[in-house]
Amino acid sequence: MSQITPSHIAPSRITASPIISVSGLTKTYASGFQALKSVDLDIRKGEIFALLGPNGAGKTTLISIICGLVNPTTGAVQADGHDIVTDYRAARAAIGLVPQELTTDAFETVRATVGFSRGLFGKRKDAGLVEQVLKDLSLWDKRDSQIRTLSGGMKRRVMIAKALAHEPRILFLDEPTAGVDVELRQDMWQLVRRLRDNGVTIILTTHYIEEAEEMADRVGVISKGEIILVEDKVELMRKLGRKQLTLTLQAPLAELPPTLSSFDLALSGDGEELTYTYDTKAERTGITTLLQALSEAGIRFSDLRTSQSSLEDIFVSLVRDRP
């Protein structure tokens, strides 16, 4: 189905060789504000890379420099083997950008604006490719509608169609599902996976942590202009994730007995649940010792369950712990 990907790219797995390479990148604005501080980052061909960070962390500046919209102060960036400064045209042609803001001609039709976007990159007219892009984004029925008549979600799809019109190898999605309903968000996730499966590298910035958790192969966290972590998502969850064991008590407790003070325990407000947090990296979880201590203290429970910390928990703790 997914012919919206570049015709010269065959489906492939993620490769170790980077399609984007950032080295020593800094950006200091005229006001003296340093938005980026010596950023080094490689993004692998064929992966979905989620870039997370709080507002003002430097996400937009980093993307804007890679896409050639903002000049770096120092450092170098290569996109698909092309330097973004000395070989700007070739580098930019490899990149599709879907900005957060919905900016397009309100009185233009969907088909015309997507076709025009292709022409901006010097590509020959290709009605068949434009048709396929619109069909894969569920926009074909709206092809002759003016942009101003579309819903916010449909306008977002048009922005993606414009970014794909020149068959880029790299696609930046800056908050692609902001303000989009849940159903449309799921549709976009499926589209992103299809693109990735056909060789397009996706760089995603999002405030929806579950979006990164659902889709990303790797996660990068940026804070105060610095990349503080880049890790495979599964490995990140394993290394930094915590698990919790929650015990439903047969009888409520007013307070924890002193004999349990050595355990990382939290008593619920109603005294009916105990939650034990433990490190997944530790050789021993301490659960067996805890259960024995509970028995010796005469505390009985009727049910237990475990839960894993989410990517959001990890992200918040990483940013919070930065000086």
Strand order of the largest sheet: 6-7-8-3-9-10
- Give the CATH class of the largest domain: Alpha Beta
Shape: elongated
Order of helices and strands: EEEHEEHEHHHEHEHEEHEEEHEH
How does the major sheet shape up?
6 strands, mixed
CATH architecture of the largest domain: 3-Layer(aba) Sandwich
Approximately how much beta-strand content do the residues carry? 25-35%
CATH topology type of the largest domain: Rossmann fold
- What portion of residues is helical? 25-40%
Description:
Keywords: ATP-binding, Nucleotide-binding, Transport. GO terms for molecular function: ATP binding; ATP hydrolysis activity. It holds the Pfam family ABC_tran. This protein folds into 2 domains: 18-237, Rossmann fold (3-Layer(aba) Sandwich), CATH 3.40.50; 242-320, Alpha-Beta Plaits, CATH 3.30.70. The radius of gyration is 24 Å and the shape is elongated. Helix content is 31%, strand content 27%. β12 (265-267) and β13 form a beta hairpin. The chain has helices at 59-66, 88-93, 110-120, 127-136, 152-164, 182-197, 209-215, 233-240, 287-296, 311-320; strands at 18-28, 34-44, 48-52, 74-79, 82-83, 95-98, 170-174, 201-205, 218-223, 226-232, 242-249, 265-267, 273-279, 301-308. With 323 residues, it is of the alpha/beta class. α3 runs parallel beside α5. The relative contact order is 0.14.
